[in-house]
Every structure is written in C-alpha cells, then in structure tokens.
Description:
The protein is an alpha/beta fold. The protein folds into three domains: 36-158 and 286-326, Nucleotidyltransferase, domain 5; 161-278, no CATH class; 474-700, Nucleotidyltransferase, domain 5. Helices cover 49% and strands 12% of the residues. The chain contains 27 helices and 15 strands. Strand 1 (61-69) and strand 2 form a beta hairpin. Helix 11 packs across helix 12 (310-326) and helix 20 (549-571) packs parallel to helix 22 (602-611). 32% of the residues are buried.
Amino acid sequence: xxxxxxxxxxxxxxxxxxxxxxxxxxxxxxxxxxxxxxxxxxxxxxxxxxxxxxxxxxxxxxxxxxxxxxxxxxxxxxxxxxxxxxxxxxxxxxxxxxxxxxxxxxxxxxxxxxxxxxxxxxxxxxxxxxxxxxxxxxxxxxxxxxxxxxxxxxxxxxxxxxxxxxxxxxxxxxxxxxxxxxxxxxxxxxxxxxxxxxxxxxxxxxxxxxxxxxxxxxxxxxxxxxxxxxxxxxxxxxxxxxxxxxxxxxxxxxxxxxxxxxxxxxxxxxxxxxxxxxxxxxxxxxxxxxxxxxxxxxxxxxxxxxxxxxxxxxxxxxxxxxxxxxxxxxxxxxxxxxxxxxxxxxxxxxxxxxxxxxxxxxxxxxxxxxxxxxxxxxxxxxxxxxxxxxxxxxxxxxxxxxxxxxxxxxxxxxxxxxxxxxxxxxxxxxxxxxxxxxxxxxxxxxxxxxxxxxxxxxxxxxxxxxxxxxxxxxxxxxxxxxxxxxxxxxxxxxxxxxxxxxxxxxxxxxxxxxxxxxxxxxxxxxxxxxxxxxxxxxxxxxxxxxxxxxxxxxxxxxxxxxxxxxxxxxxxxxxxxxxxxxxxxxxxxxxxxxxxxxxxxxxxxxxxxxxxxxxxxxxxxxxxxxxxxxxxxxxxxxxxxxxxxxxxxxxxxxxxxxxxxxxxxxxxxxxxxxxxxxxxxxxxxxxxxxxxxxxxxxxxx
Length: 701
C-alpha cells in the first residue's frame, strides 16, 4: 500500500522478521493493483473537474501547472499535474516513462514536459473547461502550447520563481571586478537583503497596483532602485522615500558607489523594467506553491533516486495524487473497489489518519499559521545574515573557517560539542556539507613545495592548527568511507555479501548530482554463517536477485569515478579519493582483494582503481594514535565504542555496511577527530596490493 520498491519492501520485512512475498509475486500484485489505482485516480480527478464546474469556473478556470521528474539525472520518469488554483487539488495529470512494459517516451525530459502538457490541454478541452489563466514557473515554455487551444488564456509566471531569478542575478554582482583605484562601497549581502525587503514591498504596493497604468508605473518606478542605492541619490528626488521634515536629504548606510557594479545593477533593473508583467499583476500575486507542495508528498510514495518501470512509477505517483485529492482514506476506497475485506482495526486507523489530515489541512490554511511561518522565515534570514556578517569579518583577515551543518551555518568549533557539531541523520546525511576551509594565498605559496612532496608520497599533508585544513590550489582529497559485510570473519575463505560507502567532501559544494552514498547487497553462493546472519540481519534469501561481485564492484568504482569527476569540475582542481575503512587493513581490504583475485579480476579492478587515483587508509590506526594522545578517551577502539563516547545520546544500526559508514563518517567529522584527519596516513593502490600479497603468502606458509 505504501508503493515501496520490492528491494526496500523485502529488506524491511526481513528486518522485522515478518513473512514476505517473492519478487515475482510482488510484481503480480503491482499488475493487479495498477488498473484499480489508475481508475480511482481518474475518478478523483474527475471529481475535481466536477467541482470546478459546480463553482461556475468552467469558462474562466485558473490553473497551476508544474512538472517533476522521478529520477532527475536521466529523467527516466516524469509527470505533469494541473491543479485548481482555488482548491489546490489536481484535476489533470500525465506520466511519461522510459522503462518497463508500457513505457511511453523515448525523447528528452524537456520534450516530455511539453508533450505531457499538450496531452493535458487536449483533455481539458475535451472536458468542456476553458483555461483563462495558467500559473507556471518562469522556465516553463508552455505559452505556445496553451495559446493553440485556448487563445484567450493568459500565462502568469510564478512571482516567487521570477523574484528568485532576479535575486540570483543580483547576488552575482559581488563577483563583478572593480577597476576603482580607491576603495569603493560595493554591493554586499547586506545591501541585497535590504533590496529584497524593499522590492517585495514595492511590487505589492497599492500605489503601483491601483495606478491608472500599473505596468507603465512599475517600469518607470523600478529604475529608481539604482539611484536609491547609490551615493548621489541623497541630493536628488528618490521615489522610495521623501526628504526629512527639516528639509535635509534622507541618508542610509546601504550605499553602492562602485561604477562597475552600478552599471551592472542598472542593466539588471532595465531588464526588469522591460518585462513588468512578470513581476506585478493587478489581479494579485500568483505562485505555484500548491504544485510545489505536491512534490514533497509524491516523494513519500516513491524514491526519486530509484528508476522504476512504467506501471510501478505511474501507480506510485497516482497514489500521491489520490492522497492529495481525498486524503489517506483512498486506501479504504481501494479495498472497497477490489472487494477485499479490511480488518476493523485497519479501518479505524485509516479513519484516524483522515481526521488528522483534515485538521492539518485546515490548520495550514489558517492565517495565524501563515503569519507564523512568515515570521519564522524572517527570523531564519536574520540569523543567516548575522552569521554571514560574522564570516565576512573573518574572511577580511585572509582565513575562512565556515562550518555548514544541515541547512544553516553553525557556530565556531570552540562553542560546540561533538553532539552539536555533527547534526547528521539518515535524512540529511546526503545533503549535509561539512567544513570548508581555505588559507591565504601567501600561506599556500610558502607551503606549495611541501604540499607537492606530500601529495606524491603515501601520506598527504601534516595538518595545521585546530579546525583549519590546508587546501592546496591544484590537488586535494575526498574521503570514501567504506565498509564490507562478509559471510564470516575469515578474509581468506569467506565472501562479500554487502558493499556500503559514504562520501565526505571537505569542501562546500552545492547541487551535486552524484549521490553521496552507495549501497548494494552482493549475490554469492557461499553460506552465511549463523552469527553473521544474527548480527547483520542479512539472510540467504535477501541475496537472491542481487548483483554478483563482478557487477557490484565495477558499479562502485563507477560511482567513485563519477563523484570525483563532478567534484573536480566544481572545484576546478585535481582530486584524488581516499578509501577509509575501520580496521580496513586487517579485514575490508584483504577480503576485497582476495575476492578480486579469486575471480580473476585483479588486473581489471587494479587498473580501474589506478585510473581513479584511489588511495587507502585505516581509521583504526588514526583512532589508536588519538587514544595514545588522550584525544579519544575510550577503553575499546571498536567503532561502536568510539561512537558511543562521541555521541552518547545516539544509536545506529551496527553491522550493516551503509549504517556503519554513516557512523564512521560522523566519527571522522566530529570536532575531536576532524582536525587530525588530514594527517591520516594513506597508501596508493600498488602499496596496498603489495601488502596484501605479502601477508597472503605469509599466511599460506
């Protein structure tokens, strides 16, 4: 009923110790439920259309349009929804898929969006409804398609997206090079915040909206902004404020007198003045918020990172549409439609969910909640502005130490404990970006020779003062936290059953397309020892249908290579990855190379590793050194013991590869350990394989 992918469903049922169905049976159930859910979704959309007609809006319908993708990178799956502006419910929808039986698209994602919208417009026409206004993102090229079927329709761009684009252009003003000989006042973040507040008030001003010609009035008035934020505006009339009562001109500290920036600022505002219809509308402010809110709901029914077949994807997305239109009670309606008996306890549970859904919906629509959210948003912006001001003052000294935790900047390391510093959970592990640190150019120059020497040896750097890492100009590292689960503890006889990895990138990088985590079970014919099955929860049946090591390991190396390439493109420098495993030299790496050797893949895998410039490290060795220095006060150096010392109030699911790598990542990025991370000894591929071969020969002898 949750629409889970079979792999996730199987893992959850195994974890709970409950019986599960085979994948073939699971697919049979999907084929059985697909037509029923499609029929129910068609019915819910038709009810929204009927509601529109009952309100008398069928000839003057205002709709919100938006498309979204099930798997963003290759856009294998995509959908498009048309919402009723008044109720926010979905009246029309379309899906495009590239995989599975019944897939209906072979083109690009951009083409899919236009094709879906064209299909929806024809459906709207056939239903007898006429679109008078369409609210869409600024980047949505839907106007031509709409005008063909509804010549009188008006396309209104979402004001949030339009202003976001404008603010992005203004934020780039700080990168405009200044040719002034003297120190000038530049367009800072403080000026941008002041502009945002003024511009939001300006576009909603009654003086503009109630003018005889609002668009013309807006176009003329908006050109006052460059004057408003320049030095010379105090001596001339400015539209945005009168002179003081004593006749003296108005003064402000938010000024810009850099000629290059003022020229660019004026050009940007001229583009705004040329298209006033995108920023103001006498009919009011229009946004695509109702469509954007549906995206988060759809993610609860299907994982965006998983490529699904046609039926499975359409079914899961239609589940989310049913939830949006009628609430959780759609599950009971599905059972009624299928004529399946439902236990009374389940009926009561779903009805309670429906009641809570209605209360939450009414609460979200209340003015008090809207005002509260606006106040919280304003408070967050104020805190971020204060933090940015503090960081600007630090940056002025030539050194930046920025720590990014979750979605906001954290305080200095001296003010935070291990618990506060590493606010990383399963939900934000992939998006949380750790520390960015830079050194002044002079420091980099003086240490360049030693840095290059360290880069060519088995170790990299010696670290600097606490909390500050040296990032050379042309070469740096990312850490691949790595863990294997095997059928037993003998690296010479046992086999790999699970590979897990989490990437730690010591640079602040936004919008990475490559996932920061990798995890897969590995099919093997070797029997899993009972103690391993008890600790990990991995059973022999869970490995059926999973990739063999000959497939899983190259996939892992592909992921590493893709991640490294993307980071290099973002940072414009050479990166080499360091694979870090706890007790890796004694277990993970010997088991890995043994498995590669047994399958005759040594040359292939070693070549791939060298192509990635992969290095190896053991966090146990680092932790042993930190314990000797009394940095880690623990009796045992097992990962569970160290985690418990650093994070006493947290727990994690030990003995599963991905969970272990997440825990080790938290350990390595904790305040006590992170400052020593750069001094961790590493070995290249040749050194690691030579060590394994030497130890293997000694063991055999």
